[in-house]
Amino acid sequence: MPEARNVAVSFAHRLRDAGHLAYFAGGCVRDHLLGKEPKDYDIATSATPAEVVRLFPGANEVGAHFGVVIAKSKGHMVEIATFRTDGSYHDGRRPAEVAFSTPEEDAHRRDFTINGLFEDPESGEIIDHVGGRADLEAGVLRAIGNPVHRFAEDSLRLLRAVRFSTKLGFEIEAGTWAAMREHADGLKRIAAERIRDEFSRTLVLPARARGLDLLVDSGLIRHFLPEVLDLIGCEQPPEWHPEGDVYVHTRIMLEMLGDHAPLELCLAVLLHDIAKPPTRTFDEDAGRIRFNGHDALGATMTEVILRRLKYPNETIDSVTTMVGRHMQFMNVQQMRTAKLKRFMATPTFPLELELHRVDCASSNGFTENLDFLLGKREEFAAEPLIPPPLITGRDLIARGLKPGPHFKELLESAQTEQLEGRLGSREHALEWLLDQIKDS
After folding, report:
1. Helix crossing, 263-271 with 192-203: angle to 10°?
2. Bridge-partner residues for 290, per DSSP?
3. Which of 99, 329, 376, 437 is spaced 20 to 30 A from 188 at the CA atom?
């Protein structure tokens, strides 16, 4: 038995020994029934928060007002929540008040039937008050009770429905889907940070392209990333993009990413052509569609979008860099060695290489630039792409030069000579520097 489950079982025993009901609840029960190892365990109990804290000294009362206490052991955290019913929701996020209740009432206040199951930790018996087991076996995601009420209580459940459907491959039940589409504007009440986190969790799933389709078809994406909708029907030159419009191209790329693609790469793929709609023109002379400058404008739009969703600066910097540079891959075979090494030395380059791979594989199928870069990566692997400089600003000052714009130009020129292999030692670099000073 995995240690996380051992810890949770021991906590449940402690609660039971004190005379309280204690069941595993929610996602850990769902995952267990699906044959997956739960990442963490939640316990639902008849014990009040005060009683839980007495039984688990040092426990964290993170949500005692809502009946939630976090207990820890051996590096594992277990959420212990008192059976409850929720009062009215005024902000589309959390109830104004709660009342402690029974297991059945607690199950009925949860979001989806597959998350409303309990498990007896000792016998393994599944306690199902909401029909969740049948939906789990049928592969159906269904809101508990009236879906309109469930989504009105907490509108983030709209995005959670997309994530669970994407993660599990479950079909969303017709009534639940209708309520999602009808009440998609409930996301207006949700903080950008909560939307960001839920969206990110969907985007990194292996079936992320399906998740994107659900966000689009439900109308949810209109309320936090409407720019994506402009990709639909934005036609591209068929000789370069036989797969279809920009949206089709983007979703195929998302589909082609590996199962464990990092968030920054997923965001860059989603947004790499985000500026094609506003830059689309038709070149009459050439008889073809063009998107001049969509990479530069795309980087600007990407920054606006990611700041709107409150992504961290580090994420924003990485993604905007990738979007802004994705068209430069067509020129790599013409780059001088120094420029190529600088290009490849950018921290995001490994992710950009994967973006380029799926960009081509999803459209024209060209691999020449990818193959060239993979070969160069092997060729350059013996030493750092950007080695320590042979000369520094101190060398310039020692030779009577005053700091200024010329400093940067000289140092960059010296680095270029070094990267091109024409300066191999500090001695040669200093000789080169003297020649540059004489000629200036």
Report:
1. 100
2. 281
3. 99
For the domain 226-379, what is the CATH code?
1.10.3210
| Spatial separation of the C-alpha atoms in residues 62 and 263, rounded to whole Å | 28
- The residues spanned by each domain of the chain are 1-130, 139-217, 226-379, 393-439
Q: Which residues contact 285 (CB under 8 A, 6 or more apart)?
A: none
**How do residues 69-126 score in pLDDT, each as one tens digit?**
999 998 899 999 999 886 555 555 555 556 788 999 999 999 999 999 999 999 999 9
Compute the C-alpha angle 310/273/339, nearest 5°.
Answer: 95
* Closest to 80 measured CA to CA, from 104, 55, 98: 55
CATH class of this structure's domain 139-217: mainly alpha
Tell me the Ramachandran region of residue 62: left when phi exceeds 0, alpha when psi lies from -120 to 50, beta otherwise: alpha
Alpha-carbon distance of 396 to 286, in angstroms, equals 51
How would you write 251-281 as a 3-class SS string?
HHHHHHCCCCCCHHHHHHHHHCCCCHHHHCE
Cα separation, 64 vs 101, in Å, equals 15
Residues in the chain: 440
Looking at domain 1-130, does it have CATH number 3.30.460.10?
yes
For residue range 359-398, what is the model confidence (pLDDT) as tens digits? 999 998 899 999 999 999 999 999 999 999 999 989 989 9
* pTM of the predicted structure, to 2 decimals: 0.92
